[in-house]
Design brief:
With 88 residues, this protein is mainly alpha-helical. It has a domain at 1-53. Helix content is 38%, strand content 0%. It is built from four helices and no strands. It starts with a helix and ends in an 11-residue tail after the last helix.
């Protein structure tokens, strides 16, 4: 039994087992480290992705390497003019 078969692919929590025999030492360690999956992860993730997609500005697609409008990191990405006579 691999970890993939007992872990939720979204939250990485341990999925409930079918019977007592499924509760192995490996599953016990995973429950202690990862906790249980609360359920509904795929639905919550889909709702979050849809919400983020709706927040994205519509219209012209962004070119690679171009910051999004209103991005606080955009100032750091702008190239400052350099040369003689340019104040620092």
């Amino acid at each position: 039994m691999g970890n993939e078969s007992v872990l939720c692919p979204v939250c990485q929590g341990v999925l409930p087992a079918d019977g007592r025999e499924a509760y192995t030492p490996l599953r016990g360690r995973l429950i202690l480290t990862n906790g249980y999956c609360a359920g509904g992860c795929a639905e919550r993730r889909a709702a979050h992705v849809e919400q983020m997609r709706q927040r994205m500005p519509q219209g012209v697609p962004q070119q690679a390497g171009q910051p999004m409008p209103g991005d606080p990191m955009a100032r750091r990405l702008q190239v400052a003019p350099v040369g003689p006579g340019v104040p620092r």
